[in-house]
Amino acid sequence: MGANNTAETLVLLKTAQMSPDDLIKSFVQPGTATTGLQAYNLEAPSKKLYPVLTPLRNSIARIGGGYAIQANWKAITSINVSNQRAGVAEGKRGGVINHAQSEYFAAFRGFGLENNVTFEANYASKNYEDVKALAVQSTLEATMIQEERMILGGNTSVAMGTTPTPTLVGSTTGGTLAAGTWSVICVALGLQAYLDMVGVNNGSIGQSLTLASAAVPGQISRTNADGSTDTFGGGNAQKSASATVATTGATGSITGTVAVVNGAVGYAWFWGAAGSEVLGAVTSINSVLITAAASGTQTAASLAAVDSSTSAIDFDGLLYQAFKPGSNAQVVSQPTGTAGVGTPLTSDGAGGIVEFEAMFINFYNKYRLSPTKIYVSAQELVNITKKIVANGGAPLLRLNVSADNLGSIQAGVKVGEYLNKVMGVMVPLVVHPNVPAGTIFFFTESLPYPLSNVSNVVQMLMRQDYYQLEWPLRSRKYEYGVYADGVLQHYAPFSMGVLNNIANG
Question: How open is the CA angle 484-455-450, to the nearest 5 degrees?
């Protein structure tokens, strides 16, 4: 090359571009994401597409200082049991009052979950995401979700026993059942079992009842991270005895009904030939309409004849402290009504719900208090709104129209609060992720009693709040645990209410 290196280089490049050599085969965009020389356009970190909804856990006070094996407390529930009159005669003393008291206790329970990361997973994730931190984070979130579920539906003391035998009625119309004799078995479901079957959607998304994979949990045998095992009840009653009914023709149907079971929020139904009954439906009312052959895979024969409703490793949650005999909580079940249809809530024609008004009256007449929140499912919130707006509630509504957009209004109304007419207070309606369809929970967070010595009506008394463990290496895995130890104390279980067996409509 001469002195003008740049000019000579450009001439050589132009000559090369016109020549049929390798430079003509210059790099082009690869046809697929895994061929050629290219970067991988991966956004970091990974997206966390799951809800973590724990409204009760978030709002209930957590108190440290728990010790021993259980919490114990006493409550004075009456200061004049026999209602002694206060009037006195001249020079005489008054009558003697008598007190009534109750004894309470609640055993502490440990709870927690574990996770692990292999060495190779840690190597592979470098420069993308800290999977060890992610393992601990997700384990903490999962533990919080399970604590929320236990706060609402843990059951260690309310045994549901054996599900009553169904009462069946066959029909020649209404379905596609072939002629024959059909056997039906029912299993009453507590909250934990019901959620396992119909889908939780807390910590995960997209779940729903899928009969092909749904199963009544029965007795659960769990292998733990240390190789030990625990066996405990999955939250369902013992299966019923079978009942049979005959159908004729090719368009038969059957209705089945069982007596309401205390502690149940749903019912699983199995049907088929005697001895071969298969899961076919899960209802939130105590009846079912059977129109076709069962499409599930779990057989009733696979369920042991044992009551699996309680778990020795749970504490009693709010629902089961209300269901517990002697709690004095209001537990009201809607009547059976038409089998397979049930009884929905009832509008009072004046912007209210008949069943709510009855609950509020009873709360005042017996305990001089009002619930402060009403926890509902999405289904019940929609049904409540329809009944209030469509049956006498519309004149009570106010429609706001934006001044800068007079031609547009916003459609849709939601009942966010309900007026307790007896006490004159507004009670919020709150959708809770774990309250099942067909059940409404009335919750009281404060007591209107002077000098009650109750700062928290409900609290989690902790022997040890959340802590993380990184276990010593025993294989090429980093192993983590997130644990806590405590119990749910409810000082006034009579202040709760459960309205269940509510039909959709």
Answer: 160
3-state class of 494 per DSSP?
A: helix
Q: Give which of 75, 145, 196, 125 is closest to 489, Cα–Cα.
A: 75
Asked if 383 and 342 touch (Cβ cutoff 8 Å), the reply is no
| Full DSSP string of 55-69 | HHHHHSEEE----SS
Q: Is 2 left (phi over 0), alpha (psi -120 to 50) or beta?
A: beta
From the list 169, 172, 179, the residue with the least C-alpha distance to 254 is 169
Four-CA torsion 40, 45, 50, 56, nearest 10 degrees: 180
Instruction: Residue 373: count other Cβ atoms within 10 Å of its Cβ.
Output: 18
What are the backbone dihedrals phi and psi of residue 407, each rounded to the nearest 5 degrees, phi first? -90, 5
Note the pLDDT tens digit of each residue in 384-428: 999 988 765 555 555 566 667 666 666 677 789 999 999 999 999
| Annotated domain spans of the chain | 55-79+105-158+312-395+412-500, 167-302
CB half-sphere exposure, 396, CA atoms < 13 A: 16
Strands (E), 273-416: 278-283, 287-290, 330-333, 373-376
Residue 231, judged by CB atoms within 10 A of its CB (0-12, 13-18, 19+), counts as: exposed
Residue 134 burial (10 A CB sphere; 0-12, 13-18, 19+): middle
Q: Which amino acid is at 307?
A: D
- Residue 68: alpha-carbon gap to chain centroid: 30
367: helix, coil or strand?
A: helix
Contacts of 264 (CB under 8 A, 6+ apart): 160, 188, 189, 190, 237, 286, 500
- Give the distance from CA 332 to its chain's centroid: 20
Closest CA to 324 of 1, 105, 142: 105
Are the C-beta atoms of residues 416 and 427 closer than 8 Å to each other? no
**Which one, of 344, 354, 335, 267, lies nearest residue 504 by Cα?**
344
Which pLDDT tens digit goes with each residue over 182-233? 999 999 999 999 999 999 899 999 999 999 999 999 999 999 999 999 999 9
Superfamily (CATH) of domain 55-79+105-158+312-395+412-500: Major capsid protein gp5 (3.30.2400.10)
- Residue 175: CB atoms within 10 A of its CB come to 18
Question: Cα 416–422–428 angle (5° rounding)?
Answer: 15
Token pair, residue 411, equals 């459609």
